[in-house]
Amino acid sequence: MTKIIEFETDPSRYRHWRVEYDGAVATLFMDVDEAGGLYEGYELKLNSYDLGVDIELADIVQRMRFEHPEIGAVVMRSGKDNVFCAGANIRMLGGAKHDHKVNFCKFTNETRNTYEAAANDSGQQYICAIKGSCAGGGYELALACNHIILTDDGSSNVSLPEVPLLAVLPGTGGLTRVSDKRKIRRDRADIFCSTEEGVRGKRALDWGLVDELVANSKFDEVVGARAREFADHSKTSASKNGSKYAKKNGNEKGIVLEPLQRIIGEDGSLTYSTVEIAIDRNGGIATIEISAPNSSAPGDLKELHGEGAQSWMLRAARELDDAMLHLRFNETELGLLIFKTSGDAASVLAHEKFMLDNRDDWLCNEILQYWKRILKRIDLTSRSLVALVEPGSCFAGTLAEILFAVDRTYMAEGEFEGDNRPIAKIGLSEVNFGLYPMSNDLTRLETRFLGAPDNVEAARASIGDMLEAGEADELGLITYALDDIDWEDDVRVFLEERASYSPDALTGMEANLRFAGPETMETRIFGRLTAWQNWIFQRPNAVGEEGALQRYGSGIRGKYDKRRV
Amino acid sequence: MTKIIEFETDPSRYRHWRVEYDGAVATLFMDVDEAGGLYEGYELKLNSYDLGVDIELADIVQRMRFEHPEIGAVVMRSGKDNVFCAGANIRMLGGAKHDHKVNFCKFTNETRNTYEAAANDSGQQYICAIKGSCAGGGYELALACNHIILTDDGSSNVSLPEVPLLAVLPGTGGLTRVSDKRKIRRDRADIFCSTEEGVRGKRALDWGLVDELVANSKFDEVVGARAREFADHSKTSASKNGSKYAKKNGNEKGIVLEPLQRIIGEDGSLTYSTVEIAIDRNGGIATIEISAPNSSAPGDLKELHGEGAQSWMLRAARELDDAMLHLRFNETELGLLIFKTSGDAASVLAHEKFMLDNRDDWLCNEILQYWKRILKRIDLTSRSLVALVEPGSCFAGTLAEILFAVDRTYMAEGEFEGDNRPIAKIGLSEVNFGLYPMSNDLTRLETRFLGAPDNVEAARASIGDMLEAGEADELGLITYALDDIDWEDDVRVFLEERASYSPDALTGMEANLRFAGPETMETRIFGRLTAWQNWIFQRPNAVGEEGALQRYGSGIRGKYDKRRV
Prior knowledge:
The structure is a homodimer.
Chain A: E1 17-22, E2 25-30, H1 51-66, E3 73-78, E4 83-85, H2 90-95, H3 98-116, H4 118-122, E5 125-130, E6 133-135, H5 137-143, E7 147-152, E8 157-159, H6 162-166, H7 174-181, H8 186-193, E9 199-200, H9 201-206, E10 212-215, H10 219-236, E11 263-264, E12 270-271, E13 275-280, E14 285-291, H11 301-307, H12 312-330, E15 336-342, H13 345-357, H14 362-379, E16 384-389, E17 395-396, H15 398-405, E18 408-412, E19 426-427, H16 444-448, H17 453-460, E20 466-467, H18 469-474, E21 480-482, H19 487-500, H20 503-513, H21 521-538, H22 540-543, H23 548-551
Parallel strand pairs in A: 2-3, 3-5, 4-6, 5-7, 6-8, 7-10, 14-15, 15-16, 16-18, 17-19, 18-21
Antiparallel strand pairs in A: 1-2, 8-9, 11-12, 12-13, 13-14, 19-20
Helix pairs in contact in A: 1-3, 3-21, 5-7, 7-21, 12-14, 14-15
């Protein structure tokens, strides 16, 4: 698996999904092209999916928000007759390297979380309409929806057959959503998750595995009615959790997410319009530099909507998102990501302020919500993350939030000899205090100052000031303030030292230190479930020659070492 | 590692610890015998420890509660001059099998949790007094104490060098307690946990890694004064968290925990006085049967204290605890544990009622607290757990709690042909509604009925009734009610099916399904940290031939595959 995986796509290139729009309701048909696998060696039978299928779904979900703000309800259903979805393709998983398996699960989890959050963030509710077998990753697609309808035809069923069939765990949040979202009684969950053939009909409803059971003859009718209800509900009522998505009336006109402009250099470097990635292969480092806008903020909403995907905050978001995914999947040996910024902090804050001032506009809301997701994507990236705050940088507001997402921040203190760029400063804004919660549902500053809320308040009081290194250090916002005598050596020593450590131990350490404080379904998925799955993905009982993943389809069950750990 | 590990010990056999008693203060000197390792092939240098050292510590902590109720403060310090403790022995870890490593970490974690909880449960506070190097597992011993004092001698230090030095994680809750108990700012935690040489002096205090920094010349004096203060505090004030440990005045007289009576059969079966374990090696099953008391409950406190460790509730607790540890470490291929009971439920409830009626007596309190710990030990046992409620059984009160700890419960319904024992019934009591919280700080019934508090109340209303299978099923307290026609086949099919699944996948599934609801430091340690550590313990970067654990002590660093996962 050495070819570059592309995360950009668009509807003209979809091979696995169809989308139909009807007023405020969109219907996604999952109709996977068997021959359309991302790699050789497997066929995507029975609506099973690989990363390529999920990249399309992620694109659909994203475009639903930006290109189709009029949509209030999204129905997910199968385009095939007798199967909803058979889950992740097992031959693909059996053949994939460990790091691809893990990254694949993480990306699919992020996509599930993204549409699960769409009800609260964007007033778009997802309904899963199940006919046929809905197994494993298929049922996990359903679990992330807001409402699950199952047809009562005597055979359609939901299942999580991973444990009995494949000796792995459901990898896309299945166990967590069964226990914590749907609150299935644990002995029933135990039965459900260890029963290959799954559960159908009344039992699925009684146990809470689905929300609604509908006679086959009335299926389309009920699904349609329910979709319209949900769409109406999205328009007329605030979200139950009180999130502040902009109210929409269904007459919004979307923008177009044009293709990104990206140049890949021979050394693997990437150049977008606002983001640049430099690669240091020997050092195992990628340096991500985000540039401040060089044009002024939109004058009014009309101008913003006219700019569309070209407006700086959205453009930078899309480019950064693409860059992070590229680094995760295509540059697995770069263990250290350095974040830098350059340009005018005032300009960053001005663009951001426009969004904040117009949060009841759906597009401004979507742009801010998108930054929330990207910042989470950074938190969840299994690389050592460091920010270098240098002269001429612009870590302010949304970009300053990156300082609290990374593991450490080094900040240049005072004048640097021979450097005529402005002294390094950072600046906070309202966005650092609530708009961008982490997976643990706290802000990054609340997490940083866990148990010390006074420190959060002291930081908040600095809004409006641009802070030099000494002040930032005093407020606990950076790790080290270094003058130009120490800067180069200290940073170099850190980078070399970090590169010398075991990547696995660092992944485990960072996953444990980044998410202090309360746990949520999301931290549980990425912290607990992922860790167990990573372990199981290494164990001979799953991936050994006689393991269940390898033997899948051969008609022979896995042979297991019975020692319990 | 095939010899049987014994978990019973007593002070006359200690090789690694000394305990001195002085009024309400006890001092534990860790003074590990280099030659006293549990296995061949390593020396326990620099106060490093293996399971044998920890078994002694667990014994000390347990006896402190039952044999020394007069103690209010326990000081943990080193019996050696220049080192506090170097942590878990690395050669031992390097040579141990995966399942032993994992079980070792779990047991040491349980011991840390046990003395960490002693302040709230038993009014015994632990103080760690550090002189010399306190590294890795050594600092984790300290982190679980209520108060950490470090000497300021220019060299004594605390550290978690696992990641940089050994390519594994601190395995005894270090990362979790750094982030969530001591709330160290995450960039500082990142530095601390990736710095081999650790932190000393003022920085350790400023960062919150220790509670008190004391000049070397005043060290003993301050430690002594602090211990007396903590002991006084234990006597005079309720615990901060409002737990209801029995108030003590320091004049309590302990009981003696006499050696357990245990017979091991040739087939590995175990017979205690109230607990029997039958082994089905082909089926991979151990059946644990607990017998109701056959004598009446103590008439008064004098009688209870006279019986001491022979009183049924304490005896059964000690035997069950020993049995669980034996199964975990010495019977790793028995993947399925069946719990049964036999005898008179009224007698179980009578003995329990005596404890409840006398909860302000320190011994009754300790016995109930001990059951809390054992039930947690069951929750955390990585085996499939099932309860069979048969005619003649006595799952009532404390024993009924086992029904809610296991993954599934099968209950016999009505008369069984040819079986003249009483019809199977279960009965709840007050203990099922608050006294025995799980690691997630909910009761097992609250966890079972997450999101459905009415079901908890309905169960509570049944206190006083003995419920037949139909009623128990109606209340959601069991998984299946089976009559004598279905019983044998259904149970057999389940046992065979379960035995056919991958033990690893079952471990991961059960760890994800058992602890729904809120997360705590404990669930985070056992759910998140353990899972990541298990993964890392499998990775070549740690345990491969060129991995850091294998190369430790060779002078050559580990060679790492740099791919990040």
